[in-house]
Amino acid sequence: MYRLYTHNDLDGVGCGILARLAFGSNVDVRYNSVQGLNFQIERFLERDNLDDVLLITDLSVHSDNEKKLDEFVKKGGSATLLDHHKTALHFNEYSWGSVTVEYEDGRLAAATSLFYEFLVEQGFLKQSSSLDEFVELVRLWDTWEWERNNVLKAKRLNDLFFMISIDEFEERMVNRLQESETFSFDEFEEKILDMEETKIERYIRRKRRELVQTFIGNYCAGIVHAESYHSELGNELGKDSPHLDYIAILNLGGKKISFRTIHDDVDVSEIAGQFGGGGHAKASGCSLNEEAYKLFIAEPFPIEPLRIDAFRNQHNLKASQSGSLYADSEENRFFIYPISDKKWVLEKNQSVESSFSSFEEAERQIKRNHLAWLVRDELFVRYLSENVLNEKRSKTKGN
Ligand SMILES: [Mn+2]
């Protein structure tokens, strides 16, 4: 009997689907959380059945199980651990461990793509174009390469994975990969995916209206309370307000904070680390301890949400050659206009404040320090006409 222990995310379940296709009813597949795996492996080792073929994908075991697994193999047991996480690289020291983080051509590896190559190489599975595509979509999702290459189908595959149960997902994918030559969603899946997308868009729009801005340490943070869609939220709010260094997403019920950034020069794993958490440079998290509660919830509580830039304007547009007008809650007016290709002037209440080499830098300055927003056309037109009139009047006086 083949026994596959794998992760319970899309990449892990991708391995489960491949195992079903390769071994049919001759495989027992278990989906585990990171913590759940060691318990399962202990149970497996206690049974001490040398006829079983053990496969572990997308997860690794703790050092105690590592030793026991090595003993199991040394006395004739069969085990293979395939992973792509940096933290598992030391398993390459064992004949039964194979960890690849990156392919030679620079693409990042995923457990599903490694397991696919393994099964084909060993002659358990025949390569096909639908399998190639399915495996590549899982890899693109798991490594976040889908974003850079803008492969929405990979994101939709993961959305579908979250919308139905693991069992149903597995069954649908196994049938599809056996039957079709290309990989695509069926009509029902397309429909629920479209509905989900609309729902997420609406959720993000609502959350944008609750976004609060404040300085925490040296960073200008955007703070929002949300229970779902953290990746989408962090990404969309970050792109919508690039002047924010990162977005902190608070889940009070779960007592957790997620940090997301779109900027290469901000490392949110460091920020999470200050509160006992960790993660990656662009996505991290921590528990909500007392210090974090004070900084991210109590102190920003009285702050009004960040105003939204006017978005139906025809005239007052960002980076316009005829200038862009902003306001803040103290009724200051900020006017940004170019005087040459690389010189943008910032006026505050009609007197020159400073100049910048790009529009973005000027806007960043007023958004970070004054929480300013792009005003509606009506205000822009009034501002310009008052300016013109003031000028005429002052000239007439001079005569
Ligand atoms: Mn993975």
Summarize the structure.
The chain is an alpha/beta fold and 399 residues long. The protein has helices at residues 10-23, 36-47, 63-74, 111-121, 129-143, 145-149, 152-163, 166-179, 187-208, 230-240, 268-273, 290-298, 359-370, 377-398, and strands at 2-7, 27-32, 53-57, 78-83, 97-99, 212-216, 219-225, 246-251, 256-260, 278-279, 283-287, 324-327, 333-340, 343-348, 351-356, 373-374.
The overall average pLDDT, rounded, is: 95
Strand-pairing-aware structural class: alpha/beta
Oligomer description: single chain
> Radius of gyration from the CA trace?
27 Å
Low-pLDDT regions: none
- Major sheet, described briefly? 6 strands, mixed
Give the count of structural domains: 3
CATH topology of the largest domain: inorganic pyrophosphatase (n-terminal core)
Strand count:
16
Strand content: 15-25%
Give the SSE string. EHEHEHEEHHHHHHEEHEEHEEHEEEEHEH
Kindly state the percentage of residues in helix. 40-55%
**Distance N to C terminus:** 101 Å
CATH class of the largest domain: Alpha Beta
Across the major sheet, the strand order is 6-7-8-9-11-10
Architecture per CATH nomenclature, i.e. the level-2 architecture of the largest domain: Alpha-Beta Complex
What best-fitting shape do the alpha-carbon axes yield? elongated
Bound heterogens, unique: manganese (II) ion
Q: How many distinct helices? A: 14
